[in-house]
Amino acid sequence: LAQAAELPCLVQRAAGGESGRLSLAFVSSADYSVLPPFLRLYRAAYPQVQLVLQEATSDVQVDELLRERIDAGLVIPPLPDKALPLLDYLKVLDEPLILAAPAGLDALRGDGPVWLKDLPRLPLIIFPRPIAPALHDAILGVFAAAGITPQIGQQAIQMQTIVSLVSAGMGLALVPQSVSNLMRPGVEYRALHDPTPLVETGLAWRRDNASPVLQGFLDLLRKNT
């Protein structure tokens, strides 16, 4: 009887998005920027919601959204054409690209920004283009504008792997500014004098997902971005 008496309250909390389950995916760069502070806010506002987190690249997240396997995903746009009729999108962050280079290079003496042309011709460590074509092309475009054709060395999917390869002296990389929160021995992060595009991160979700839990998540995100 006591459990039955609690049912109206449980139903009310579920209808208001205060309880239930939220499946959220995120690109690795979001783990060093918007994800931790927003999760703290969300957990404080909705302590009864079960959060299921999954790190995944943007292309994988889009497929998971289209198959209705996750509720929302923090992705690097643009979304593919096939997804545009089905997904909504909200920008949550813009940040510049910065240099991640092996520590101790002569060009890194001092504390200020550096020019790509002043760096030794180390291999470029980058992710495979299909994962995020726009960001991949933007990185190569920075080198092209500097009159440099980089030799692509290692390729890695996750930002933490890219930074680890830089720390091992395998080459240099251009990464979103928030990745500098990932500290690794043997890596120096620097701003660039070279013009760099802003890297955008945003939230994507299915337009037809009427979950109250998702709506609560979106409302809180909109209030805090």
Give the tags.
about 220 residues, alpha/beta, seven-stranded mixed beta sheet, two-stranded parallel ribbon, 6 helices, 9 strands
How would you describe the overall organization of this protein?
By secondary structure, the protein is α/β, with parallel strands linked by helices. Helices cover 30% and strands 27% of the residues. The protein has six helices and nine strands; from the N terminus they run αβαβαβββαβαβββα. The chain has helices at residues 2-15, 35-45, 58-66, 133-145, 159-167, 212-223; strands at 19-26, 48-55, 72-75, 87-102, 124-126, 152-155, 173-176, 187-190, 198-206. The strands form two sheets. Strands 1, 2, 3, 4, 7, 8 and 9 form a seven-stranded mixed beta sheet that branches. The longest helix has 14 residues, at 2-15. It is elongated. 30% of the residues are buried. The model is unreliable at 9-16 (pLDDT under 50).
What is this structure's SSE topology?
Blueprint: H1 2-15, E1 19-26, H2 35-45, E2 48-55, H3 58-66, E3 72-75, E4 87-102, E5 124-126, H4 133-145, E6 152-155, H5 159-167, E7 173-176, E8 187-190, E9 198-206, H6 212-223
Parallel strand pairs: 1-2, 1-3, 5-6
Antiparallel strand pairs: 3-9, 4-7, 4-8, 4-9
